[in-house]
Amino acid sequence: VAEGINYILGRIVAFLAYLFGTRWHFTWTEIGYVVAALIVCVLALHVVAVGALVFIWMERKVAGRIQDRLGPTRVGGKFGWLQTLADGIKLIAKEDIVPKEADAMLFRVAPYVSFAASFAGYLALPFSDGWVGQYVNVGVFFIIAIVGLEVFGVILAGYASGSKWSLFGGMREAAQVVSYEVPMGLCVVVPVLICGTMNPITIANMQAGLFTNWLIFHDPFTFAVFWVYFTCATASVNRAPFDLAEAESELVAGFHTEYSGLRWSFFFMAEYGSMFLVSGLASILFLGGWHGPIPIFTASGLADSTDAWWYVARLAGVVNFIGKAVFLVTVMMWVRWTLPRLRIDQVMTTCLKYCVPLGAICFIGAVAWQLSGMPSGSDIAPLHRDGMAGVRETWLADPDSDGRAPVSATGVVALREGVAR
Amino acid sequence: MMPLAAIDWHGFFFLLFALLACGFGVAVVATSNVVRMAFYLTLSLGATAGLFFLAGAQFVGAMQFMIYVGGTLVLLIFGVMLTAQSNFISMKTAAGEWIAGGILGAALLLLLVRAGVSVEDWRTPRKGSNELTVANTEHTAALGQALVGLRVDKLNGYPDRPPAPRANSLSGYLLPFVIVSMHLLVVLVGAGYLARTKRRGTGPAAARTLETARPTQRHSLTVTGGIVSGIVVNVVLGVLMFTFPDWSTRLGAEDGSPTAQAIHHLSQQMPAGLPMILAVLFALNVLLLVVVWQWQRWGVIGLVIVSLVLLGLLLNTPLDRTLVVILFAITFVPAVALLGLLLQGGRQSAWSRME
């Protein structure tokens, strides 16, 4: 991309030089790299910022349909497309209030902490094969660690507001997130265990091919653990029916009772950002990431070509990935407008008495399934002669592996041989 | 305009993260509000995680986020917000505390700087720092393998070394890993226990009932004597076990009697990791005695568990199976017999009278 930008800039400078009849040369070739990096940054930022605009509009439409009404219809034409934008303008125009009892510095900083933590996860979230902000080889672990930090902003907001409602909301959120991190970690370990890596790119590439290779169809335990993960993810991003930190029926508005205007909307951008983040992680870990249900580009060899088709294949991957993540976000909305809010003790019971044991059983079950060599979903259209284990051991043995599953590998390289080499 | 490629970006970001870490560290000291301190501490630790990422140690960086930043979060919530009374929310530091803290901090800084300078590699300036490449840490699989007992780096580092599976497997981190996980489990159980007792009642009235209802910790002379003798016997056994290879070789060399030969034969059979196993067992025994002292029922159950652990450890050694069974029976049978004796006697059994 950087070279392309440099080329275009060079042509522009040459054209200007031709126009004015002077001798200019394009010299700062580093600019292309800076522009390319900025493009990546801005794109990732827009997944959160513009994504929130779309998701809030979608949430209203979904809520409307579920409650047998139309939702927004007027702003911006037939479907109320621009409703969120109108809301945004309203929020910007609102007065920014800091209560008298509040710890002003922490009160002001809290929304940014929440947003920054939510956004930092996108650093390691790949959108397509190799298209990732920063290649982090322990990306899954990194994202899980970051998701837990979003609550920090909420707790700070609850404490700094100087209001009992806010403090209650913050404390509930703290107890909830700290508890739900345990089963969520247990669930994430299962795909990591099957793939033998914490690199999200490798995990998704090991699910290439037909949709039977997706880890959710690997064995009954991974199928079960996906739903446990999804429940825990919903709880850890503070979505209904687990949104006790807000609980407007009891706590006015929970942790953001005292917030107004743009600061308030930062919390919501963070919430929708986190929703997309955990959904994206779920689609990478369980739903094949950017690999579609039928491998059109991989089978036709276009994914490995060197010409423009390479970009087209990657773009199709991005579409696949975002489609899956948006589908999961929609399911979260569906759940929110269908189920009533739980009580705090029910939330804790769900976590400690159901999610943790279920996660642990699925973990042990998945290990036993692998050890005993039971048939898995990836046997139907295997990527490798020896199934998932074969792919895993081949790349594990290869220190120069770029994280891509060796599709056309002919034999298994034993783990120990590779290590000794 | 300076060409962008000429800037030492690595150094730039190192300085940035280091300044952030140190700056927020100073802010922690300078602030008097507890919650703000915890906030600055989080930022400082986050900047340290950035340093790890910069060094290519991505796993350690993510760990820093998970454990330190997340841990400070929990500290902030449960340690500060719930316990902070009005006189601790905003702390006034006296002059004497500043001086004592300054001396302590300066001493620690001096020690760290001295230790840092003493590393040979860090003193010598690198040639061509622009060509410095970040270490290849692409595969965390090596870390995982080391945790289950296979040090890949050792295998790679010495290609001409003869294969020594047992020594290599013991050079991994399986034992520390298991010990740490057991430790965490104990902490978890303890936390659950503490949380449960607190829930019984709050307020002054409940506190008074607790005061009066607290059982007096009195042990009879036999229990005390038994525990003391247990510790003495364990220490003697431990010393004997650790010196066993020494005196068995001496015996085998000098004396030709069948007993000495049998002991010598046994010592030849000893696997390399036996001292480690014995050390664990020794620690378990001492722990068990403490448990017996505090909670007598759990002590008896612990006796059975320790013998089962012993069986598991011995089965993984190349010792003779008959020997394993005998050693296991020596500990297991008395433990089960004791349990059976205690449980006898219907409602008024010795078991029910234990605390």
- The first-to-last residue Cα distance of chain B is 80 Å
Order of SSEs of chain B, N→C? HHHHHHHHHHHHHHHHH
Low-confidence stretches of chain B: 164-170, 209-217
What's the average pLDDT of chain B?
70
General description of the model:
The complex is a heterodimer of chains A (421) and B (355). Chain A has 421 residues and is an all-alpha fold. In chain A, 62% of the residues lie in helices and 0% in strands. Chain A is built from 15 helices and no strands. Chain A has helices spanning 2-20, 30-66, 83-93, 104-120, 139-147, 150-160, 164-195, 200-205, 220-236, 261-285, 296-299, 308-336, 344-371, 387-397, 415-420. In chain A, α9 (220-236) packs antiparallel against α13. Chain A is globular and about 65 Å long. Chain A starts with a helix and ends with a helix. Chain B is mainly α and 355 residues long. Chain B has 17 helices and no strands. The longest helix of chain B has 34 residues, at 221-254. In chain B, 75% of the residues lie in helices and 0% in strands.
What's the helix and strand layout?
The complex is a heterodimer of chains A (421) and B (355).
Chain A: H1 2-20, H2 30-66, H3 83-93, H4 104-120, H5 139-147, H6 150-160, H7 164-195, H8 200-205, H9 220-236, H10 261-285, H11 296-299, H12 308-336, H13 344-371, H14 387-397, H15 415-420
Chain B: H1 9-30, H2 34-54, H3 58-81, H4 86-89, H5 95-117, H6 120-123, H7 141-147, H8 152-157, H9 165-170, H10 174-198, H11 203-213, H12 221-254, H13 258-269, H14 274-294, H15 296-315, H16 321-343, H17 350-353
Helix pairs in contact in B: 1-2, 2-3, 12-13, 12-14, 14-15, 15-16
Which short descriptors sum up this protein?
heterodimer, A: 421 residues, mainly alpha, 15 helices, disordered C terminus, B: 355 residues
In short:
Chain A is mainly α and 421 residues long. Chain A is 62% helix and 0% strand.
